[in-house]
Each structure stands twice: as structure tokens, then as C-alpha cells.
Amino acid sequence: MVLFQAKTMIQYENIFKPPMMSLFVISACNLQCPECIMMNQMNLHASYQMSIEEIEKLIYYSERSGYCFNYRYTGGEPLYWKHLKEGTRLLRNSKSCKSILLMTNAMKYENLTEEIVEMLDYIRISQYTYNEQAMKIVKNKYHNKTRIVDREEFYPNPNSPFENATPVECGNLEHLYFQGKIYACPHSYSLALKHNLTHLELGEEIKDNFLNRNCEIREGHIEICKLCLGNKKVRDQIDKTKNISPYHEKLLVQLTKKINPVKTMKLI
After folding, report:
1. Domain 12-240's class?
2. DSSP H/E element including 194
3. Mean pLDDT, the chain cut into blocks of 10 residues (268 residues total)
4. What are the residue ranges spanned by the domains of the chain?
């Protein structure tokens, strides 16, 4: 049985060119970084994992509509997605696939098999202090496909809109596929949940020619764009902060106990 049809590897910079489609494949994440822009979506749909039926539906309507995407897996942590191998195989063999990028913290690297990596174009690892070992393992094994992005510092998500953030300079031009629906912006649903803006039209159920109204829907997102870190005019008005996740805090406590167990015992 042939796992997938081999394709010429795309240049890394080209996977960030439209048309791009983010697949929100799972809500679960081992880090729960407080500044994650998808956190509200993850919390509301905590048990969500994209089904094979959803993948097949996306392929069906994309091929019927003549669309070919640079796909990327997001979440949550995609390495926890139970359909990672089968979903990737289906996408890779479809006419709708230009490339596949896996975005990960790599800490569940044992789920990243050679079969899966062979079907991916690139693995993009977010670098933190506490995933250095996992990052090295993946990079040493799959160095040609691995790219590292520093995430030690984050831009905090704003709590109120920046009125001087228009006209929008959007750095996230991809669409988002989630629960059988195509969202015109990858962050719009999560931000709408946080800021009580769900009355806005965010996307449509997937169907033939599902991108036809994409620009029209995005134009109705101005209130979301004033809150979104994907908008360069918002990001330029915010200072970065150190990214400390609950996992990181727990790790620091464990390290403290190992370094100075006597002092820790006295505190307890």
C-alpha cells in the first residue's frame, strides 16, 4: 500500500503565501500559555478533535471549488490529534493540498513518526526554555524540515480595542477550518468569544466556492481587528512580555526542589 503520492518539497517562505488554510485540529494543549490567542476557543471546546469526516468534507468542497491550499495544523497542540497520520495522508493525496505545515511545541515528539514527517513539508517548533530537549530531538532527526521560532516572549492580548489600529495591516491572511465551518480569519472566533463579539458574521458552513464571500466577511471584522495581534498596528503599540505558562511554573517549582530540597521542605 502506498502511503501517499510524493510531491516536490515547497520552499519554506512559500508556505506563507495565500491561499492558506489553518486547521484547528485539537483544543487540548500541554502548555496552556496565558497569552495564546486561541485560548478562548480552546476552553469553550475543550474536548474537540477534528474528525476524519471533517477532513473529507474539506477536501471534497475544496476540490469541487478548484482550491489548492497551503495547509497548517494549529490548536491546541497538534501532536495530540488522534487522526494526525490518517488526516495528513488524506490531505497529502488530495488535489487541494499545496503544502502541510505542522505548528508544535514538540514536547509530544514521540507521536511524530517518520511516516507522518514524510508527508509533511515543514515542522515549525515554538521555542521555550522548557522544551529545549524535545526541540533538539526533532531538529536532529528531521533537520531539513524543522524550523524554530522563538516564543520566549509574547505580545499580551489587549483587553480593549486600539481605535488607531485602522486601516488594518493584517499579518494573518489565512482562513480557519473548524467544526465544518470556514472562518475568514484564523483568530476571529476566539477573539469574538473573549470580547462578546459573536454577533458579528465570522464565517460560513463549508460548501461549494466557500471563499467567495471571504473579503466581505473580513470587512465586517473591524472591531475584532482593533483587538488582534495579527494586526501590525495593534502589535506595534504593545510591549512584549515573558511567556510563563502553568507548565513552566510547575517546572520551576520542581527544579527548585531539586536544587535546594532542604529549603523547600522548611517552606512546606
Report:
1. alpha beta
2. helix 188-194
3. 54 90 96 87 97 98 97 97 98 97 96 97 92 94 95 89 95 95 96 96 96 94 96 94 69 52 32
4. 12-240
